[in-house]
Amino acid sequence: MKKQLSPDTLCLTAGWQPKKGEPRQVPIYQSTTFTYETSEQMADLFDLKAEGYFYTRLQNPTNDYVATKIAALEGGVAAMLTSSGQAANFFSIFNICEVGDHFISTSAIYGGTYNLFSTTMKKMGIEVTFIDPESSEEEISAAFKSNTKLIFGETVTNPTVNILDIEKFAKVAHNHGVPLIIDNTFPTPINCRPFEWGADIVTHATTKYMDGHSATVGGAIVDSGNFDWMAHAEKFPGMTNPDPSYHGLSFAQSFGKKAFIVKATTQLMRDFGSIPSPFNSYLLNISLESLQCRVDRHCDNAQIVAEWLESRPEVAWIKFPGLKSDKYYDLAQKMFRKGKTSGVMCFGIKGGRERSIKFMDNLK
């Protein structure tokens, strides 16, 4: 059996695999279009009969090499990059839901995602029900409707650092025949791989830890390939029924485990064009090479700071899953590598708003 490569090795070697005489770094394919010898070759690409590139609004080799690296880190079968984490979350929902559909989301999520779900997607005829991330299995099930298509949540919530029991939410989702989508931005696959706990699809705002240098805004979607769309064909016509824009092709039947990413690329990226520039993807790839080292240091430093803050009389409360006093400590030890979650914590200062603002304004 082939030994699985460690995350730090994948950070360096996954994705672009240079052959003899090729550059060590992933090349930047800075081109809008790509050339072919015959019109038939182009036609096959347009009809999804062949793999390849013809227009960077849909796909670009640089982007795909970097997406492949992220898929390897997460343990997925396929991935795609987007222009932002917001685009990744939107695509992950809209690739499944359409007008008249409903989905469930935990309420403790990034504010931008909350607004996307509650306001913008409502205008598109897609309804969401927000539930407490600590809901019981029975309470999660009670939120389901006949038109519910998925559950969404964050591994570690931004910015309140709650930890989601992915295993519990995955169990309920699968009992109802729908996938679980998890935003894994804060832990990154270095600290947690949601697929190992039952999630089906993972999203990222690569802008955060994956980039890590405030250089590029970006997002990613990774598919585990584990959700069986055909087994629930009546719920997911967009995945299983013939697509009129591709001559009656069924994504689930034609592309199997990679159907979700192929559909998101050839439908949503085609129509919305939320593609990152190849140069941004190149910069992201450089950042990914040091992801393991950076995440470890972030978490170790955060642990030291959190323990110090917990001991200070000026601090009213602190939330950090690395502290034994934190309500999520045991879950963090179970789900996360060495119990490390991220470098983010929340705390309150005695003295109210005025004292808190003074503290923030004096940070160096």
Offer a quick outline of the entry.
The protein is α/β, with parallel strands linked by helices.
Describe the protein's architecture and organization.
By secondary structure, this protein is α/β, with parallel strands linked by helices. The protein contains 15 helices and 9 strands.
Helix content: 25-40%
Structural class: alpha/beta
CATH architecture designation of the largest domain: 3-Layer(aba) Sandwich
Query: Uncertain spans, ≥5 residues at pLDDT below 50?
Result: none
How many DSSP-defined strands? 9
SSE topology:
Layout: H1 7-13, H2 39-46, H3 61-74, E1 78-82, H4 85-94, E2 102-106, H5 111-123, E3 127-131, H6 137-142, E4 148-154, H7 166-175, E5 180-183, H8 188-191, E6 201-205, E7 219-223, H9 237-240, H10 251-255, H11 259-272, H12 278-288, H13 291-311, E8 315-319, H14 329-335, E9 346-349, H15 352-361
